[in-house]
Amino acid sequence: MPTTSSSVAGLAADPNRPAVVDIWWWITSGSAPVDAPSVLSPAELAAAARLPRQRSQEYVVYRAAVRRTLGRLLDVPAASLVFGRRPCPECGDLEHGPPRVIHPVNPWWISISHTNGCAMLAIAPHEIGVDVERQRPIWSADLAAKVLTAAECAELSTIGDPVRRDRGFLACWTRKEATLKAVGTGIVTDLSALESHPATRGPVHLTTTVPGAPTNWQVHDLALPDPYLGSLAFPAAAGSRIRFREVTTGPDGELGR
């Protein structure tokens, strides 16, 4: 893919056009660029060191790519970015609210997701949530009862092919997790109370009851290559358009799209 550059100017809101949600995704299973660790914070390097080797390498790849992408958008060196959190919409705590870049100062909302082999970053002028999962055997009646609504259980239980049923379960999961990340709480709520409409092709609308957050969310299924599934959520009233791009990382750390 050709190498291109972006800047925050390209994300600036135009009052005459819908807001834009920008999403980048990349494969993380390759070797890390030689200089990737140099852009990570001490806390990120410490987190990587605590992981098994393969997971540690993937962590370095995706965190470096997140930093390089955001650094380009905000026109600062990737290593200079400082991450923090917004207040939790339920309790106001800064320890577990949605993530944000606190340096440099900027108005953008971000969401980051990572699964085995794939990672994703979203940025928007409003609440945003993304989730990516790798398809795997996961279905069980006990797990379904804990995280699915009665309607979702009934829909997926009729699927005889175990691979399709696993995919249906993960589609429900990514829709729910993306929504709750957009809300700002993450999956600390009762997932079995959130209806994700598995029989309906996206976009779908999910309704939440978290105080201080929008109630209605528009959720899109993202077109990722097998074996990955992803979802994007943002306030239903936003009416935003979506730009979805793959990122490739060269051995020198240069990003291409």
From TrEMBL:
InterPro entries: 4-PPantetheinyl_Trfase_dom, 4-PPantetheinyl_Trfase_dom_sf, P-Pant_transferase_sf. The keyword Transferase applies. The keyword Mitochondrion does not apply. Signal peptide: none annotated. Residues 128-223 form the 4'-phosphopantetheinyl transferase domain. It comes from the Bacteria. GO terms for molecular function: transferase activity. Keywords: Transferase. Belongs to the P-Pant transferase superfamily. Gsp/Sfp/HetI/AcpT family. PANTHER family: L-AMINOADIPATE-SEMIALDEHYDE DEHYDROGENASE-PHOSPHOPANTETHEINYL TRANSFERASE, PHOSPHOPANTETHEINE TRANSFERASE. This is 4'-phosphopantetheinyl transferase superfamily protein.
